[in-house]
Amino acid sequence: MNKKIWSAGLLAAVMLIGAGCGQKPGAAPNDTPEQITPAPDNQTGQDHSGTSNGSGGSSTGSVSEVTTPEAKTESIKAYYTDPDLMELVEGTAEITYKEDQEKYEAAYQALQKSDKGDMVPLWEKIGLNSLKFENGALTLDVTVPDEANLGAGGESFAIDAIKKTFFQFDEVKSLQILVDGQQTESLMGHVDLENPMTR
After folding, report:
1. Which end of the chain is less packed: N or C, by CB atoms within 10 Å?
2. pTM
């Protein structure tokens, strides 16, 4: 009798333990896929739809707005010197731009190069750091390396060249030249520089 009771009790205990262990793994796999699977689907769907609709719509609009202003080509006067640095020489340059800021940058670049051998650019080695135009005032921040020094005559021509080039634009009322962000009394150390230069 005792053996039967003991065997029955042991069998019942093993079944309870087996049933308890069997429920835990069953619960975990059933819960886990339900919690994990929908979350990425929902998030991915929302993110992609939100991103594609939002950025797609706005980028399409911004692209059409940016491409609306067409590039303009203009022939301007640009000033150089002769090979012997004896006089200021007037030349012409074709510039292409979309906005006023680009127009002034293109005009400065025109002062830095010349396709004609008898017209030597006075601003070729003077780098442009930044350019700003506001309320009729044009400010150029430049860097003047030692090799850009042209002597007193060349410096005087360089200042005249940049004044004549930028004051051909009616909207430019004053021209301020900064050297490495600072006002200076002279561009190359030979000629006084007005701060700012006016018409």
Report:
1. N
2. 0.66
